[in-house]
Amino acid sequence: MAKNARKRAGKISVVDEQPQVHNIAVSPQSQKRKRHIDEPQEAGNTSPKRAQSASAKMAVFQPELLQAIQDTIFKLESSAHIVEDATCSGCRGTCTDCSNAHDSPACRRSVFRVQKWLGSHFEKHALYDLGFCINLGHSGQPCHLNKNPPIDFVIVHTNGIHKCRVLYCLCQNQKPNWKALQLVEHRLFPATSDTPQTAFTFAVLDEFHCHSLSSKSSAYDYFNALKRLVDATFPHLVPDRYREFMLVMCFWRHLALLRHGGQEHNIDAILTHRRQGSLVVWCPACPEIGFNVDEKTLELATDSDMHIFTLIVSLDGNFRLQSKKKKGDPNDTALCGGNAYFVEDTAYLEYLKRIGKADEASCTSILKAVCQQDRAKFKDTEVSGVVAAQCRHQIYLPQGMVDLTKGEAYARTDYALVLGLGLEGLRQRWILVTYDVWCQYHINLKSRFANFPGWVEKSKTNAVRGAIPKMHIHGHNRSCQLKHSLVYQKYSGMTYGEGIESAWSEQNHAAASTKEQNRGHRHDTLDDFNGFWNWTKLIQLSSTLLKQYRKYSKQLVICQDDLQKMAALVSPELLSDWEALYTNGRNEDIFETKDTAPTQRKIYEALIEREQSEYGEAGFLRRGLELEEQLLLMKYGDLSESDEDRILEELYHNLCRWRSQQAGLYPQLHPLPPIDEDNIIDTDLRLPSSLSREQRTSLKLTGAADMEKDLRLGLAYDLLHQLKLEINEWNSLAFSLTKQSTKSTKRIEERVRADPRLDRIKVRQHRVMNRYNDNREILLSLDYDLGTTGLKKLTADQLWGKHALQPRELGNSSHRDPWFWGVGKPGEVTPESWNAEGSPANMALKRPLLTFYFAYQDQRVRWSRKKALGERLREEVDILKEEFRRTEVSFSKMAEVWTELACRNAGKPGYAEYAHRHAAMYTRLASDCKEKWRSCEGGLLIKQFCNG
């Protein structure tokens, strides 16, 4: 490697041949010799000694030593010491004959402990008691130059903590840190550099690393388990090397990141378009200009190709990944130093100091948690959480994670977004950002980009578009839902923007341990977890793309068929009018009917506007009504067994979270009824309506009862609207059956009655009717006066409506629709205006497919929404095709890169072998991606999207 190349081990930069340590702080006191961290205190010296800080202990491992350890680890990849084609992984590089591995002294150390028969039972004994000694070098035989007695050691292995004897080889004792390196050559990581007396086997480090990545288990729990493996009765008598274990794991994680990231092989010399020193796992499916997308291709792409080449980024905050405010080590800095997923601390803090505290407008949505959340949960925290950026494939962006202090702030989110995009993002033409509060975040985004000098000027991005994720958007007001919905956002595909939430649910398992760590240690640990998350997504990406391609291709065919059927029900002139409105109109006019009935959501939004200090109660009650609806669906719905199991499991977790919130909001209801996992459908939600008037008064729940009353009023209107849609659907299907038949009227009626689809619709109608009547009775029990609302009791003989799809018949005017058809009709359209020239009524006379204004609005909106869905599905299929191509290209190029790195590092033992192994791995990934694409390419016929 060239002298001016930046070395990765220990984070050294070589500038003018003067090494500078960046990430391992060395205090002035550390220049003097300190007592070794695992060296016993001299007998008789009882004076208290100040414990070494974490940074001081880490400073013992100088950058030169870390590089030598890394070189030795690579050397174990070499085949120089292997005499057979097959060798055991546990002793690779130390045994010359693995056929007698159990008899080999080098392999015998993996046992460490034996059992001795005492005549009545077995008793554990250590090999130490039998005089066993680990001889370093000479294939397990003692060094003839070393006449000294063996040194007592504590070695930590996967089966416990063991005392043993170690005899060094003195053949090459002139090298610096020769003792530590001899241990590493025998797959033992020393706890210190000069006179180590504690070492950890590579096996135990690998095992804990794997467990911590997969289950987020803490080192404390893991080490206690090792102690109990040795002596479950007296674990406190087992040597405690927990602190040394934590120290070694910090270096073990970092050295692994350096190897996997290719920095030891100087991968930056080949991938010059990426940021230098990167330790991250990059997404192979996202557009990466100069790697899986040609820059010229991107420049020639038209707006109609926008969805194919758009980089989609999700932003979100997590307030579980906190850090406690405590007396820590100020010199503890991250070994990754901003080259992984967390940003570099120094520059980030300087940015925050320069920006200062800005007042941010509160979101007009009902998600006011950013402004009104409980500040008590941030008490005694130095870091209140993190905000991160992911791509649409749920892969964390490099340098896309920053710490938060007491809630989210736009300035911090800006930093995560800009650094996550990095220099690579400057070359993207189209970027789409999803964020929970995009409706407010985007307002001054362009002006805030001025805080990053040169970023906007160098950027080739036409504009940063944005939207609100599909789940969170239901917590926003109606205007936000229409303006910032991904469903109505052109060139966004079927992106849902909520993938980062599943990442948080995984990373939150580590919160209990990382909140106790020092700042640098915490960053390194979370960087490692993020890298593992990215890797799991990368190796599953081909399967994920295949699953999504099949799913959305099938949905696209169904959607196209539905759209064609809907278009066939209207005249060409009317369809042309709808097309014009869809192309030129506002989302508010296209995707929403003008209905003045106060729906549950409108009332909910009004409650949120009134609610200030008691924020959260209205949302809680609304979720309660949603859970009530789900319980009824499980009780009376017609679900498949697989769907029922999945929904039951999800419902149980939702009920548990809701019950926990209920206990916090209404402590006076204690004790609350338990949630029986085996009998979920009979769960008592204990809403205010389930209590008597006297109980609500005594428990001070009258305010909550009023809120529930208002929400249930909106629910009643929602249910009536749903009933109208069900009746319209029955009418449409019955009309289509009669038009298809040329038989007699009697035979037509028999065919209509026998059609099972009509029966299913009737079942749904009765289900809605029963739900409405039950809700109405609850309103009455809450003392609601329904006299002015027009909400009457529904009966089975009222479940009909005039055929909106049939021509006007004689005597039609004398038959009135059931009462609920008059509830919620447009207030701005009077009956007189319907009879005017060009009105919907006259339009209906000319086009008998529509006979009243409500049906007109309903049909138009349903058609518009279906058309938008079809466009998003078509875009998604196009995106997935391109992502398959990009993924295969990325894997193939990474195989070429690692093959080239093997050639460039052929003179360094083990480096070429490691690079060839990674090249073979990426070759397999590329082949797997190609096979999966071939399995679905052409397997599903994608119909040409039909506008009509």
From TrEMBL:
<dbReference type="InterPro" id="IPR040521">
    <property type="entry name" value="KDZ"/>
</dbReference>
<protein>
    <recommendedName>
        <fullName>CxC2-like cysteine cluster KDZ transposase-associated domain-containing protein</fullName>
    </recommendedName>
</protein>
<feature type="compositionally biased region" description="Basic residues">
    <location>
        <begin position="1"/>
        <end position="10"/>
    </location>
</feature>
<dbReference type="Pfam" id="PF18803">
    <property type="entry name" value="CxC2"/>
</dbReference>
<dbReference type="Pfam" id="PF18758">
    <property type="entry name" value="KDZ"/>
</dbReference>
<feature type="compositionally biased region" description="Polar residues">
    <location>
        <begin position="43"/>
        <end position="55"/>
    </location>
</feature>
<dbReference type="InterPro" id="IPR041457">
    <property type="entry name" value="CxC2_KDZ-assoc"/>
</dbReference>
<feature type="region of interest" description="Disordered">
    <location>
        <begin position="1"/>
        <end position="55"/>
    </location>
</feature>
<feature type="domain" description="CxC2-like cysteine cluster KDZ transposase-associated">
    <location>
        <begin position="127"/>
        <end position="233"/>
    </location>
</feature>
